[in-house]
Amino acid sequence: MTLRQLVTTIQHRLQPSAARPIGADFAANRLNLVQADWRDGGWRLRAASSLPYPMPRDVLLASPKALVQFVDAALAQAPFQGRRVISALPPADVRILPLTVHVASGQTEAQAVGRAVSEQLGERAGQHVIDYYQVRGADMDGGERQVLVAAALKHRVLDYLAMLEHARLEPVALDIGPAAIGRLLATLHGSDVGQSVALLNFGAAKSYLTVIWGRRLMLDREIAFGEDMLAGAVAGALDLQPETAASLLRQHGIGARPGMAVDSPHIELRRAIRAILHPACQALADELAHTQVYVASRTRGSSISRLYLNGSLARYPDIQSRIAELIDVPVHLLDPFGAFPESARDTAGDTAGEPATTSLALATGLALRGGADG
Fold this sequence. Notes:
The chain is of the alpha/beta class. Among the domains are: 94-153, Dna Ligase, domain 1, CATH 3.30.1490; 191-334, 2-Layer Sandwich (Nucleotidyltransferase, domain 5). It has helices spanning 3-13, 57-61, 64-76, 109-121, 154-166, 177-188, 227-238, 242-252, 267-298, 319-324, 361-367; strands at 22-26, 30-39, 42-52, 84-87, 95-102, 128-135, 144-153, 170-174, 196-202, 207-213, 216-223, 304-311, 331-333. The strands form three sheets. Strands 3-2-1-4-8 form a five-stranded mixed beta sheet. Strands 11-10-9-12-13 form a five-stranded mixed beta sheet. Strands 5-7-6 form a three-stranded antiparallel beta sheet. Helix 7 (227-238) packs antiparallel against helix 9. The longest helix is centred in the C-terminal third of the chain and has 32 residues, at 267-298.
């Protein structure tokens, strides 16, 4: 099937339906699904599910029969309706380009973005599928625009859509991951239109920092800080296997809190981990400080009002207090279900608890597409 044929199919599936599409996140280690309803000016959680893969992700996605059985099992965990989905390509398959474009007289914004992308990618531009998201700033009324461009190779897009088809899912849209996360944060803080809120999403190799201002995405950037890097530093310093070091971090966190009693369990080990990881944590602190300066420059002085943590490191012991030492704002663990009223979550199904619930941020943002925040 060609890209044009797939687009035609997706447009057909965008026709009104009784149930909204399911947010489907085929993450590194598990499938995360969320479905929501838009009722009476607010969101209601219909169903949520998070199921670990029974085999390596690449093997599962290349095995249509096993993939269908697995997806069916995930859908059976909660009262999902239909098989229409909104999904997002894996981060490795999408290049996010923060660009400043100048919209000339008689030129549309899309035309200006297209020209800027062509200049950025050169002759390779024609090999990509391009989408973009406008970034909010205090100077939005001028001819200059700040945008986040998502560029993915056409064959990667086709392969991903084919995978969804093989799973007997019906893709109605492919979203931009940072836009979906920004949508979730905007829903969580719908009334705080003048505030900037940030999410630090920890990954295995890298982490991602997303900032919204009001209800609009302002910034999404990649940070060289992840579980593999931290485990590697501990393994090298203590002469351990990386897997053993990673296990220690999951058990003891990334360092002892200041003022911990000397008789606290494993206090010497936790102090050693803190010392080993101090350079990495200081580099993260510098990144957060630079982000605060950038936000203030784009918002005429507004600062980040709170920082959410999500992803693998968000489940580490004392992670909130350790990150709070690095940035002078309140730090919270992200609860994606905070986007829904308590009374609207009762029928959602069993997500298998931690770590499943903390894995649902992207799927929730995908499911929220098309409401008050776009």
